Amino acid sequence: MNRNGPLALIFTALFLMFLLAPLLVVCAVAFTSQGYLSLPTEGLSLRWFRAIGDNPEFVRAFKDSLLLGTVSSTFAVLVAVPAALAIARHRFFGREAMQALFLSPLMVPHIVLGIAFLRFFTMIGLGGTFAGLVLSHVIIILPFALRLILAASTGMDRAVENAAASLGASSWTCFRRVTLPLILPGVASGWVLAFINSFDEVTMTVFIASPETTTLPVRLFLYIQDNIDPLVAAVSTVLIFLTVAAMLVLDRLYGLERLLVGRGRE
Questions:
Q1: How deeply is 86 buried, as exposed, middle or buried, from its count of CB atoms within 10 A (0-12, 13-18, 19+)?
Q2: Residues 45-87: pLDDT tens digits?
Q3: DSSP labels for 141-209?
Q4: Could you tell me the residue ranges of all domains in the chain?
């Protein structure tokens, strides 16, 4: 068995520290008792966490972001699965053009998309609506879901499907009982990546969000324009802890490796 040398271990430790240091600093600032951004040198305080409850717009924005991310990523996966299966399995006229069309939002700056969506939604009556937000988010997160599902579909052995069909399974049964379980790691990974990008999106959303449909990143962006205090650090810390807790619960109940990689627990 090959073992990493001391230099490799030191490099890995420094690399991990480099990645985690900003998160640790944000979490530390959230516990300060001061009214400005500073490390808690005079003791820990939950002052800014209590302040989150005094600002219900942050709680409402978090719920809106959670709902928006869930709905938009689900719709993106529903579109990406048949598109990925068609691109991976068939050779037809316009195949490359269709794939380029689905991936094209990656090449357009989000600020340009935001202005375009603002103009378009205003013309058709969807300006400032939740439906407009969902539609725009589906478009920009679809490439992330498609790429992962396409990778899973390309490497799938179709002999298993042919065996199921030869035993009398219908097309729907074959997809539900054979195809979907085989590409499930790609689907789950695509959904998670799409959700993360939807939840974190701010550049485009700031153009099309309204006071009734403001997401959490947009709310934080608007807040720091007029205020410089640890409240934003407290909100970020809550999100970090919720993310870690969700990952631990998911790993405990189902197993992250099984869900995202497709391997069972040893």
A1: middle
A2: 888 888 888 888 888 999 999 999 999 999 999 999 999 988 8
A3: HHHHHHHHHHHHHHT--THHHHHHHHTT--HHHHIIIIIHHHHHHHHHHHHHHHHHHHHH--TTHHHH-
A4: 57-255
Q: What is the pTM of this model?
A: 0.83
Find where tokens 């992250």 sit: 256
> What tokens does 207 get?
């153009």
Task: For the chain, report the end-to-end CA distance as a whole number of angstroms.
Answer: 19
C-beta separation of 85 from 92 below 8 A: no
| Triad 190, 184, 131: Cα angle to 5° | 45
Q: Tokens 């600093």 — which residue?
A: 25
In this predicted model, what pLDDT tens digit does every residue of 116-133 receive, in sequence order? Answer: 999 999 999 888 889 999
Pick the CATH number of 57-255 from 3.40.50.720, 1.10.3720.10, 3.90.1180.10, 3.30.365.10: 1.10.3720.10
What is the distance between the alpha carbons of residues 40 and 34, in angstroms, rounded to a whole number? 8
